[in-house]
What does this fold into?
Amino acid sequence: MGVASAYACWVVRRLPAWSVVSLALLALIVLPAAPAVAHDVGGVGATNFQTTLSTMTPAVSGLSLRVIENGSRLELRNDTATDVIVAGYGGEPYARVGPTGVFVNDSSPATYLNANRFSTTPVPQGVDGKQAPAWRQVSEEPLWRWHDHRVHWMLQTLPPAVAADPTSPHLISSWTVTLEYGGERLSALGSLTWVPGPSPWPWFAVVLVVAAAVAASTLLTRPHRVLAAATALLLAADLVHGLGVMLATLGTLPQRLEALLGAEALLIWPFAIFATWLLWCRHTRAAWLSAGLGLIMATTLALDDAPVWWRSSAPSALPALANRATVAVVVGLGLGLVAALPLLLRRHSSAARPWDAAAPADPGPTLPDSTAFMSDSADLPAGSATDRGVGRRQVAGYLAAGALGALAGTAAGAAGASPRPSAPGETLGIARADVGTRTVPFHGEHQAGIATPVKPQARVWVAGFDLSPGTKAAGLRQLLRRWSDAAAKLTSGQQRGATDDTVTTGLGPAALTVTVGFGPSLFGKAGIPESARPAGLAALPAFPGERLDTARGDGDLGLVVSADDAVVVAHAARVLRRLAAGVATPRWQMSGFNAARGTGSDTATPRNLMGQVDGTNNPRPTDPDFAAKVFVGPRSDPRWLRGGSYLVVRRIRMLLDDWDGLPLEEQERVIGRRKDTGAPLSGGGERTAADFGARAADGSLAIAANAHMRLATPAFNEGAAMLRRGFSYVDGDESGLLFLAWQADPRRGFIPVQRRLVEADALSRFIRHETSALFAMPGGVAPGGYVGQNLVETP
Amino acid sequence: MSDVPVCRLMSTRGAALLVTALTISGASGCALWGPEGGPGGAGLAAPTASAEAAVDAVLGPDGVQRVEVMAGDDLRLSPSVVRARPGVIEFRFRNIGMTPHDVRLTVTGAEDPANTAPGTGNLNGGQAQTVRVTVDRAGRYPFPCLYHVSSGMQGTLEVV
It folds into this structure.
């Protein structure tokens, strides 16, 4: 706060009042004339279309191909001493990239078609790719970027499958780009997919909170410096947003600068700096300028870039979350500054008549006066509380500060290390006593134990039952009623009034869940007609190479009992087994375990006995399409399965001696993730989206073509996804994974993924699928009802 | 193929927001957020009409079956399904838009049996090209546009 800044403020206070106002009006009139330039890179803005390069085979060291600019272009770099030739659409040579630079073939239609994103350039007469190549040098660098129309969506309408169901992921096409390298044919294989974006509503809330905070600041006696800060922050956020776009733009410096500045940034930003300065000097009329800037920046950015809130990818070097946040902050601050203007003018009535140039904004200050004025940091100089009560102003101040604090907290939380939100009612960072008392409601829309609790419990018992020969419909109904009644009591910690109650005396339910379902073989027995069997409930197909133990698989009925305590599980399993006596007998039973609650972090992904994190890419309850992936839809047939889910149970033995004999790097290559952090080998953290096209330093794929993670990812399985709730098992020398996977339809879940895995998965060497079962688990139970009521009571 | 995408409002929330956005911008229709739609799926183009009916190639007095297929800027072939009997089939491909196309058949050329992938070659806007093929076996033979097949530009020749 030197004399210089005080003098600067003194100068602006001398400015004629009308000059600032007319500057603001001028800005409003002139600036929108510059058309808003959508923040796109290579012709693509925020989009749900995603181009992925899966693999280039055979890999050549020093030769790298990657997808850039959201799939708008491909980039080929050739650091070897041999030329590589990219084939055009008819197989003709299109571009040659090598040590002497880049040449394009003027006899190839691709040379003209690839000039822009939508291939609108006509091809000269006679050019059809059949003539001898006419090479023309276009670059001296061994690097070429081109719009390859095989890898992106060219239409202004959506693919029919996407238009019919835009909230689900879709595989739109698989593409191949062929290269020729030293006489050898290289194939780059990839896919064009539709990846639905997140919900935009939280960002609308951020916009509202920010805008309200700025507007509320006008209730302070002297809000000018808050508004100055808001204007400066507006400028900073816009700058950060533009830098993100600039860094994602590949090209020359002028091209990148154009991406940063667009058409109007150089016009707007100086005004913003000027407005900040005026407001900092408590120049009330500068609110006109800041409001005008706020209006322009908020509307142009909202129109151009709001889609980043609800689309899965955007052309920005910033992380998606940060990019969305910069847009929300700019829009929120901009609208807040607009709202602040009338509020501010009402409170500073002399400024309400800005056209009255004779009315001074403030009493003409002397230099020392304004220095004193500048030096206060509090907004409430003592004795200035005149017309409104101090209490009200304080409340307003707290409101504004609170809103900004909440916003900062949200941002910090979002950027923090625990991105997985917990389900309502679940505590993070448990104390030991919490483990026993936790309950998961048995009644509800869906059966417990599928999506609740969010993290699988520590213990599980899974069993398949066969109906006793001659069981009638009534017998099955009674069994389901008895199981449901017992489950409701056990899971809520009530006594059943039986002599065995004491097994769990003093113990809580420990998040006990009981989930009941029906196997394909039930239909046709006990009065259940074969016609009631849903199409998805057919015995799983045999997968190549598997040798299953049928005595330990399948079954008429399936039961999953899970809790955080072994005694609780054992007791519940025994009670349910006894209740089945005479009606059904266990065909097979298996027990499994995870780390006990409280042993490790409650938010960490569990690890399996191979030492690998398992379940990172599981659908999360907060995902907008979680229910669609896991539960049978409310309008699906058959009716009795609505709200239910299909359970695939596989006992997967791990050949741990072979696995543990493998060096760490080999193990990581098999999975595609780092073993310690669980991060994809393409970089980042455990939850960073894998870049399947990324290359290691030696030019090979960072995530190998046969890595388990690549083959199992939904993007390469037409979006197939399932909720895996795995448990480990150890049985003497045998150990492995009890793989429990929940899905809305096994034909769009386990079956396609497993087909792909058995074809190529590098992990197959180290595991054996030993048993298999499939059950349809009906929807949830209302109090007084029982599991499967809609099936067994339907005439 | 004259379907104009119709704006669809998927939820009242989305609708309210769309209306607000439209008021602010003065823009109209689907153009605001592009084909991928606005928040909550507002403004998404409704799914276009279902599969088109097959068109029969017309048998001429010279024993050649003829059909005209249009290629447009909508990156679709119309008709997209052509039905014919085994024999010689003459395609007249006409580019009715501005975007170049190159339609390739996956059957044998009528003039040159060695040509197993006859096609139009590059077909600029306004141009037309005739391609004769011989098919002697029933089946479904796709004819993709080499430039735009990833965007679904592909027809099918059904020989019955």
Notes: Residues 495 and 501 of chain A are 6 Å apart (CA to CA).
